[in-house]
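Supplementary Note 3. Input sequence used for the single-chain structure prediction.
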Amino acid sequence: MKKQLITLLALVAIPAISFAQTADEIIDKNIAAIGGADKIAAVKTLQFDQSMNIMGMDMTGKTSVVVGQSLRNDITVMGQQITQVVDGDKGWAINPMAGGTAPQALPDDQVKIQKGNTYIVGADLVTAKVQKYPVELVGKEKLGAQDVYNLKVTRPEGVANYYVDATTYQLAGMKATVSMQGQSGEVKSQYSNYKTIDGLTLPSTIELNSPAMPGSLTMTISNVVFNPKIDASIFAMPK
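The predicted structure, written as discrete structure tokens, is reproduced below.
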């Protein structure tokens, strides 16, 4: 009887072992859900528009990206334009709402964080695989009503947890603890309203929470263009 019980338990355990997924398998399914590694790798530059709302205040913006290298954000709020740029290991910003119209160099820790945004929105796990960042499967859990896989990724700017929808394998959310100007805080993002553009399925709505903001920011992405010609001079710091 004891031998039969051991055999039965072994048979029950086999499906559980067979259906367990590794972090690599989850990332591969995420890449396939986005559109495949080849299509993602073919994107060298991109541009998109943004409309944002935070605590009832509306903002608009335009983003230009050279993948893995450069990023420029031009945000219009209350009739003023805020520009933030990262180019390689340097960055600068013009923020008239902070009391000045002259460009200011960004601190190194902020450059490092912004450099992490020089990739396709919603394709963070693709970057993790290509760049060979350490990835650990924490487990399966709930994110709101969604069943998700929690993947812990050690990035150059810090550790982030990515939540992958267990059904669609699209990115559902992210949280990370970041340090900036001597202070640390937790940043959270949720991704939704996925749309397919030129064979790539990406989020068009992002809800962002950061200790640097007075409330939750909802961003809608539109007019996405892959591989536009971008003049490198737009990333140069004005003299």
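Confidence is low (pLDDT under 50) at residues 5-19. The first helix runs from residue 2 to 19.
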